[in-house]
Design goal:
- The complex is a heterodimer of chains A (81) and B (182).
- With 81 residues, chain A is mostly helical.
- Chain A has one domain.
- In chain A, helix 1 crosses helix 2 and helix 2 packs across helix 3.
- The longest helix of chain A has 22 residues.
- Chain A is elongated, with a radius of gyration of 22 Å.
- The model of chain A has no long low-confidence stretch (mean pLDDT 91).
- Chain B has 182 residues and is an all-alpha fold.
- Chain B has two domains: 73 residues, RNA polymerase sigma factor, region 2, helix turn helix motif (Rna Polymerase Sigma Factor, Chain: A), CATH 1.10.1740.10; 88 residues, Winged helix-like DNA-binding domain superfamily/Winged helix DNA-binding domain (Arc Repressor Mutant, subunit A, Orthogonal Bundle), CATH 1.10.10.10.
- Chain B contains eight helices and no strands.
- In chain B, helix 2 packs parallel to helix 4 and helix 6 crosses helix 8.
- The model of chain B has no long low-confidence stretch (mean pLDDT 87).
- The chains are: A mainly alpha (81), B mainly alpha (182).
- At the A-B interface, helix 3 and helix 4 of A face helix 1, helix 2, helix 3, helix 5 and helix 6 of B.
């Protein structure tokens, strides 16, 4: 069972990472993360996970052939109108 | 400027996002390409209904998802079942690698395969939020669900995926599983 301040920190971590908490709650979160090794470690874990997802996603790009097909489709549609 | 030219300016910068989302929804490149083409054609024909100044990426993703549900989902492989009771807890300091350094040791294919194996409702929110960076409100609108549901699905999706990646990392020796007491 986690202490209640850790429960709160875990629930608010996403909003904290996005900078969406009110200023006083941002500060409380910073204070808690400095004092609580478990929550700090958890934050690092979430960041490592999310960074890895973004990298895996960004390495896939729309194939050039598909891009050309879409351009041609737009040209054809606009000629038809 | 013609409507087609405006469409090109607004919509084409999002082709990478659309292709990636389509790839994760359909699970195969050829189907993803077809889905993106269908989406762009439908979007072009519906362009007059786009509100200038609103989020074109979210608008396009909504069309893509609707196309997927209406014509594609039934063709997709059967979803992988999830035992909701088996959603793991977040790691604590006693776990090996509690800061998740092993995530960086995994290759893209391993990460993406685990994403593809998530059930549709979890995969959708994870892809749109954590891989493509769409705001919760836009995801909620695209999927037709409340923001609170987006957040709860996202939480579960992350836990399931983290658990699977951690088990994979243990099975391949990237991290040592915790010792079980005799």
């Amino acid at each position: 069972m986690l202490p209640s301040e850790c429960e709160t920190a875990l629930q608010q971590l996403d909003a904290y990472r996005r900078g969406e908490l009110p200023p006083d709650e941002m500060q409380s979160m910073r204070d808690h993360l400095e004092a609580c090794r478990r929550c700090f470690s958890y934050k690092k874990h979430e960041e490592a996970f999310l960074d890895r997802l973004v990298t895996a996603a960004r390495n896939a790009r729309c194939p050039e052939e598909l891009r050309s097909t879409v351009y041609q489709m737009i040209a054809k549609e606009s000629r038809g109108n | 400027m013609t409507a087609a030219a405006v469409f090109e300016d607004e919509a084409l910068p999002h082709l990478d996002t659309l292709y990636r989302v389509a790839l994760r929804l359909t699970g195969e490149p050829a189907a993803a390409e077809d889905l993106v083409q269908d989406t762009m054609l439908r979007a072009l024909r519906a362009w007059s209904s786009f509100r200038p100044g609103s989020n074109a990426r979210a608008w396009l993703v909504t069309i893509l998802r609707n196309q997927f549900i209406n014509g594609w989902r039934s063709r997709k492989r059967a979803p992988t079942g999830i035992d909701m009771d088996s959603i793991p807890e977040p790691p604590d300091l006693k776990d090996p690698d509690p800061e998740g350094r092993f995530f960086n040791e995994l290759v893209d294919e391993e990460v993406l395969q685990a994403v593809d194996e998530l059930p549709d409702e979890f995969r959708e929110v994870l892809v749109l939020s954590d891989m493509e960076g769409l705001p919760y409100a836009d995801i909620a609108e695209s999927l037709g669900i409340p923001v609170g549901t987006v957040k709860s699905r996202l939480f579960r999706a992350r836990r399931i995926l983290q658990g699977r990646l951690r088990r994979y990392a243990e099975s391949t020796g990237l991290i040592t599983p915790p010792e079980t007491p005799e």
